[in-house]
């Protein structure tokens, strides 16, 4: 049951019998020179479509296409709400769903940068007597099959894009990962923020384009990507996610807490 394609009486009737809602959270941001900026909302949206085929009786809300991606704002086209505004938007959406009767919230998240704001929202809902699940699909997919694990804009996400919207991917633009050591002598860039110095890994806080000139980062080289990988990964994940949601919907609600 897709919220946007339902009438309000249908939603009212739904919440008379269920307090479960599944919501998508994405981002519009750099994913390397070859992937579309919408990569991080396209996957959650497809996952929710697949879940809807498997459990049409569950209510699926919209996927938010903007998230928190301040580290990427030097790559043109990246549009970031930032942590504070994403938190406000998520809290507002969830607060309205709470008013209609939602108590079990399942977030299908496509972007690591959203985690902080969604966790803040989750604590607040938890204090109001709700259960909140955060499914960071790319991490969980890597647990379902370690061969599917990936970084940012690498083979994992490129495979998802090649299955969901192949025309949005430009494999001819794919270049090397291109990490720049911009932290001074003997400080080596390793990935997002993380550098290596004498075998130890502190962080440098900086906009990503200064050290990642291509924009994709990870051990999973996008040249290995395929639509078949994307399809198998996302359908397997959706198979797991609907079973998780079945169990999650039965989880006891916590007491309300005033803070
Ligand atoms: Zn991504």
TrEMBL record:
Xref: InterPro entries: Creatininase-like_sf, Creatininase/forma_Hydrolase
Keywords, in A-Z order: Hydrolase, Metal-binding, Zinc
Cofactor: Zn(2+)
Highest taxon in the source lineage: Bacteria
rRNA processing as UniProt keyword: no
Entry-linked PANTHER family: 2-AMINO-5-FORMYLAMINO-6-RIBOSYLAMINOPYRIMIDIN-4(3H)-ONE 5'-MONOPHOSPHATE DEFORMYLASE, 3-DEHYDRO-SCYLLO-INOSOSE HYDROLASE
Name listed for the protein in its UniProt record: Creatininase family protein
